[in-house]
Write a structure and sequence with these properties.
By secondary structure, the chain is an alpha/beta fold. The protein is 45% helix and 14% strand. It binds nicotinamide-adenine-dinucleotide. InterPro entries: 6-PGluconate_DH-like_C_sf, NAD(P)-bd_dom_sf, UDP-Glc/GDP-Man, UDP-Glc/GDP-Man_DH_C, UDP-Glc/GDP-Man_DH_C_sf, UDP-Glc/GDP-Man_DH_dimer, UDP-Glc/GDP-Man_DH_N, UDPglc_DH_bac.
Amino acid sequence: MRIAMVGSGYVGLVSGACLAQFGHDVICIDKVADKVGRLRKGEIPIYEPGLDKLVVDNVRAGRLTFDTSLAEAVGNAEAVFIAVGTPTRRGDGHADLTFVYSAAAEIAEALRGYTVVVIKSTVPVGTGREVSRIIREARPEAEFDVVSNPEFLREGAAIEDFMKPDRVIIGVETNRAHDVMAAIYRPLNLIQTPIVFTNIETAEVTKYAGNAFLATKITFINEIADLCEKVGADVHDVARGIGLDGRIGRKFLHPGPGFGGSCFPKDTLALAYTARQANAPQTIVEQVIEVNDTRKKRMAQKVIEFCHGSVTGLTVGVLGLTFKPNTDDMRDAPSLDIVAALEAAGAQVVAFDPAGMKEAARLMPSISFAESAYDAASGADVLVVITEWPEFRGLDPRRLKQLMRQPRIVDLRNIFEPEELRSLGFAYDGVGRRRPH
Ligand code: NAD
């Protein structure tokens, strides 16, 4: 198959490289010339484990190329994927579809022969129809079908998720488009991946329902963690206790500072907006959004209370800034709220993150950055763990204690063993864990 991928960000680049690995001929397009220039030189603009090798291998094999203009690639393609951003629209929380609609208009101009236009971006229900209308209006004679194929990959495990997905959802309405999509994903038949064909609206809703459910699960365990703290229970044991029930499942029951990232916050907002418009309000999702927003803000207060009510003049070492480990993505990361509130309360923040500091420096210009986790702990009055990067788990608490001005840790991801730290003389607070009486 000849495929054009419009948008080469986290989703477009990973999907493009993986589709090339499936054996298709893929051209990844991005309008940011610098990004395309770097990709052509073999430089990967994002941090995603394994992506550099996958891209280089497929470029070498002649199956993956990059371009800034979509005209030629779209003209020659059998399938054109739209993988542009759909950020939150200012003001009302709905998804901003400007990039999707302008990509659709550009694609319309370039279509030649029968082409399947696949929407991979996360878009509210109804967008597929609108994309179809835009193309039809611009090119009444064009031969095309619009398909919804939402992406479920997770940053940090994106290649594995794309190559071995739990399922693929395809919203399609003609046999011709069905066959093109089946051919694109045929390699997944070997590993018996369920491929669920639906109509376009169903596929669009499925993506939002999935993300909203996961956001709800996280928010649920976070509130249970609050209860555990108050009553002397341990949230990890509770999570295990309920998670072993097959109807609940063990994943996504890790308490923390609240969900962030480029998907859950914006997708829950967009779903709530769509549902209100459709007169079918999603009250659970609306609550999840509110509880999570409050939680992110409250985490700084937790640190302040732990420091006996004030961080004024204190140095706070921060470990981890990205919204989760193994990515450099800072979009809607809880650290943004927490660090801002700590600074507003008079703290001096020194942070370390293995991959996110370049982007963080842009978003948090007033904080200092450390060279390593130990460097961030050096001279700190309290150390706050915000992202559970694997390398933080191996930190030597004795060394941390020697470096810190005061041995205090607020562990918002529960990566340390409370008893071990307390026995070494640390004051320690986690999330939803029993406090010593
Ligand atoms: P991103 O911002 O990293 O990438 C989007 C890219 O599209 C940018 O590089 C931008 O320059 C490019 N672009 C925009 N308009 C263009 C145009 N007309 N022509 C060519 N290029 C254009 O975004 P992302 O994180 O990859 O997300 C893309 C979509 O996938 C979103 O709808 C998102 O919700 C969804 N999604 C993201 C994830 C994730 O983990 N990041 C997972 C599943 C789904």
